[in-house]
Amino acid sequence: MKTILALETSCDETAVAILRDHELLVSEVASQVAEHEKYGGVVPEVASRNHLVHGPRLLERVSREAKIDLAQIDAFAATSGPGLASSLMIGASIAKGLAIGFDKPYLAINHLEGHLLSPFFGETKIWPNLSLVVSGGHTMTVLVRDVGDYRIIGRTVDDAAGEAFDKIAKLLGLGYPGGPDIEKRAINGDPARFDLPRSMPDSENFSFSGLKTAVRYLLPKIAGRFGETPEQEHRLTQTACKLSGTDLADVCASVQAAIVDVLMSKTIGATKKHGMNLVTISGGVSCNKQLRVRMEDACKHHGFEFKIADPWLCTDNAAMIAFAAMLKLQNGFKSSVTQEIDPNLALAV
Ligand code: KG4
Ligand code: ZN
């Protein structure tokens, strides 16, 4: 029996979890959304200061809740990239310090691998699958043969899908993060009212910046704001355009439909092309109900199995890092405490 404690501090959530074999004993996330919301995005300096405050408190809390002394932990894991350097180094330093202090192994875990494996959370092994990892920083399809055996099939050439949700929400004067807010407002909207671009239909890669630009130019027109000169017209696109009622709902529904269509068609296309019969999706955007339901329907239609984690496991958390660490520890993986964090850590070449 092995007990792993993991920390996740790649961006603005401070998270700590303890996993005993495949049973989750505790998972805590201290969200910093309120601190960053006023800036419309994550401020690295604010994030790292908060990790320093929340990290030790969460350690104390998880140890109390799981009724486990830190000396009883068999291995300490932390996210070592990709992410914000000043955030990553806090969680990794805490885990390394604990590993050195208690003379236990340290495991450096790739954040994307944490997301990618999360649909199998609680299981003892994973199955080959075509995985869509879709978060605020990443959008990629990955051919997964086994733990550690990954081949990237498609990736975004500009913005990630979550980033598109967040940037478009900002244009609409909505809150941060934008995905949940757009989803909520899309519920009563007409997804067919605005014909928004589905970029790069013939490529395995993704592109979402054209969608953001299309929305930027659409909003002043819906609001009935027209500039007299090209300069005035351009200026109108640079400020948030607060719509309301049906207009807001229809824009949100049309944006959500455009993003979900692209994610679905490329994932299903890659699954067919690479001869897989299991589709998994993970990352913050996979909390989106339209994406969950429509991907499940499409998989049924094509005869593929479909696996997705519960929403709490889709946004950033330490339980997924502990789970990835457990699967890797089983395979004999350990890291050196001298291993540096890597803000640009790749999932595979
Ligand atoms: O995985 P995650 O928590 O952090 C990263 O690793 O980036 O993902 C955060 C992203 C944000 O862009 C957020 O807007 C998006 O996930 N997101 C959603 C939803 N919930 C979170 N996007 C669409 N619909 C949602 N319900
Ligand atoms: Zn993430």
What is this entry, summarized?
The chain has 349 residues and is of the alpha/beta class.
Write structural notes for this entry.
A hairpin with a 4-residue loop joins strand 1 and strand 2. The mean pLDDT is 95. The chain starts with a strand and ends in a 19-residue tail after the last helix. The protein is globular. The strands form two sheets. Strands 3-2-1-4-5 form a five-stranded mixed β-sheet, sandwiched between helices. Strands 8-7-6-9-10 form a five-stranded mixed β-sheet, sandwiched between helices. The longest helix has 29 residues, at 245-273. With 349 residues, it is of the alpha/beta class. The protein has helices at residues 33-37, 44-65, 85-102, 111-117, 161-171, 178-186, 209-222, 230-236, 245-273, 289-302, 311-314, 319-330, and strands at residues 3-8, 13-20, 23-31, 75-81, 106-110, 129-134, 139-146, 149-155, 278-282, 305-308. The protein has two domains: 3-121 and 313-330, Nucleotidyltransferase, domain 5 (2-Layer Sandwich), CATH 3.30.420.40; 129-308, Nucleotidyltransferase, domain 5. The protein contains twelve helices and ten strands. Residues 11, 135-137, 162, 165-166, 177-180, 183, 283-285, 287-288, 315-316 line the site of 5'-O-[(R)-(carboxyoxy)(hydroxy)phosphoryl]adenosine (KG4).
